[in-house]
Structure formats: structure tokens, C-alpha cells
Design a protein that fits this description.
The chain has two domains: 85 residues, no CATH class; 239 residues, Aldolase class I (TIM Barrel, Alpha-Beta Barrel). 31% of the residues lie in helices and 16% in strands. The protein has a nine-stranded mixed beta sheet. Bound molecules: pyridoxal-5'-phosphate.
Amino acid sequence: MSNDERSAVSEEPPLSTRLDFLKRFEPAGRGFWANVPEKEWQDWHWQLKHRITTLEQLERLLPTLTPEERAGTTLANHKLAMAITPYFFNLIDPADENCPIRRQVIPRLEETHAAAWEMTDPCGEDSHSPVPGLVHRYPDRVLFLVTDRCAAYCRYCTRSRLVSNATGYDFHPEFDRQIEYIAQHSEVRDVLLSGGDPLLFSDEKLEYLLGRLRAIPHVEFLRLGTRIPIFLPQRITPELCAMLRQFHPLFVSIHSNHPRELTTEVREALGRLADAGIPLGNQSVLLRYVNDAPAIMKAHVQKLLMCRVRPYYIYQCDLIAGSAHLRASVRQGLKVMEALRGHTTGYAVPTYVIDAPGGGGKVPVSPEYVLSRNNDRVVIRNYEGKIFEYPEATDGTPLFKAPVEVEESELT
Ligand SMILES: *Cc1c(COP(=O)(O)O)cnc(C)c1O
């Protein structure tokens, strides 16, 4: 950020100007790695190999490291490892202790403070796991965990019990058993590959896995959950996209939280996926001082549309142990939703959900638009607070012969 931009922000210009500033696409650039040859910088293996994983590296690269961050980093290897790709590290504003990028990936001492209501498996995944690495919570779809590794580690990770293996969970998925389960359960029509990050696999390994799932006749729909387009856009090669497009219908859900994450590099990577015919969705986690301000979230969802990504979910932050400093309130989440619906493109408005603690699954939460409802009328309000009445339709005694109801079983 230049000095001009910084003073522009502190002087609180009109919101429109501020949104404009947040929505600008800029390259993450080379930062500390200006001398690395372009070929290496663009190589995703180089990026992974040169990740920032130690306190020594952090001290060198971030002179403004705080005592809380230093302590957090020392303790991280027993909880959730630290890893940040050089590309993503360049998005950190070293002058800003509360930089929204920094808060997501640099450990803090607060992570070791666990409240009584926090959990190591907040969504009760392990108790809904018929075989290791498969979570079958909903009737017709499964979550297929393929690895415990990511390109970088989010400090609020809901799966930190296993991801990065800092706590010795030793996650070793057995693909044969996972695939066998899906093959034997004909109700599973949708398989969501996640982890860890499935795009850390080589093209060959991912192709093998997707090929085996596609060969199961009742699997209609495949999707990948990944933060790699954000942490490591270099991974989204033309070869990867050409491989993925063999497996349609295949959707990809990315995870991005703040407009600054949507750089020119990311926009190009997402464009390659979209050009391969892959519908893109985004999942954000509502995070305190990161994206819990309506103006930030609005800029973010609008910028996602410019990257050809449809905002899919905003998650209330799970009750993962040591995440209190990052959790925004549901009250604030509802304010954010209120500021989106009607105020911007419907496609830009995601569903706000709480993944019910203990394993109830995703539950939508929404500002109240239905003010009252009885057999005769529904009273609603719009995004401006104006009140309207809709006369309820009668579905009791039909005036004409009722259409024949089709049993769901006849449709399949
Ligand atoms: C989120 C999730 C899914 C997918 O849910 P959708 O609402 O269909 O995107 C599936 N299984 C598990 C266990 C999940 O947590």
C-alpha cells in the first residue's frame, strides 16, 4: 500500500471511493523474492519448497512481528503448523499489525487459550465417519478427505485436529476403502473432495482418484474444496485444467475471505478454471477484523463475481479450540447479510450458515424478512425496511381437479 492510499483510508473518504480501493485488482508481486527467476517463482513446487515455516524466517521477513505472534509461532508446531507460500506472504502489510491477511496465517498466542465450549472436532466429523477420511452426514453426499496437507494453514482451521499433523492425529486415508464405501452406497450421488487440499496432489494422482469416482455409476456430481487458487495460484496450470475438464460435471469451491486476496494472479488462475467449464463457488469464514465489516464483505463478493466466482457460503467461524480472537458474532454476521441482500447483485449474496456444533450440519441463518404469517396473509419487509403484504394462496380445497402428484420414486 502506498502512503497516498494509506492516508486516503485514514481520512475516511466516501464509502464509494473506499469500495473502489478495496476492489482494485493488483498483483501480489515479488516482494522479498524479487531476485528469484520468473520460471522458479511461477513453479508451484518452488513455492511450496520455499514456504515460511519457522520463527527465524518470520523474524527476518517481518520486522514488525509482535510478542503475541512470536509466542504463537513457537507453539504452533504442537497445534497447527505454520506454513505460508512466498506468493501469499507478499500480501501481508508489514506496517499493519491487524492486517487481515496476517491474522489468517500468522499464529498468535491467543490460539493456546481454549474456552470450555470450544472443541477439537467442532462439527463432529469423526462421529459421522463410516470409514476413515469419509464424512457421511447428509443423505445424498459425502465429504471425502484426501490429505492432511495444505499449501498454507489457516489459523481458524475447523480440521486442525488432523490438518498439518501437528497434534499427531496421523491421518492416513485409504482410498480403496473410501471408494468402496461410495460404490456400495447408491444413495451417494455427490462426492466432495477436500482435506487438506486436494490440489496439492499431482495431476496424475488426482486424475486417478477422479477417474475412479467417475466410474461409479450413481456418482452424478463431483466437486473439489480448495484454497490453492488463493494461496498458490501457480498451481492452476493449463495442464491441470485440461485434466479436470474430463470429469464434468465438476464444480470447485474456493476459500477466500478478503478482497485483497483477489489479486491479478488469482483472477487469472480462476479464469483458467472457469474457461475449463468449471463452475466456481466461494466459501468465506466470517472473521473478526478480517471481513466482518459490511463494506469489506460487499467489496469481496463483488470482486468474486469479477473473478467469475459465485459466492456460495459465509460460515460462522466454528468453535475450534483457540479461535475466539478470530470469531465474529452472529449479530455481526447478520448485519453483513443485511447489507448485501437487495443492496447488491443477487448472485453476489451467499448463504450465511452455522455448522451446528457437535454435528448437526449447516444451518442457514438470515435476517428476518417475514414479519408475520397466517392462513390469510404474509407480511414481509424489503431491504429498505418497507413493509408489504402478500395474500396467502389457498392450497386447501382445489377449485379444479388437483394435478396428479408425482411420487419422488417415479422421477428416478
Ligand atoms: C459442507 C458439507 C457438505 C456439502 O454441503 P453442501 O451444502 O451440499 O455444499 C457435505 N458433507 C459435509 C460433511 C459437509 O460438512
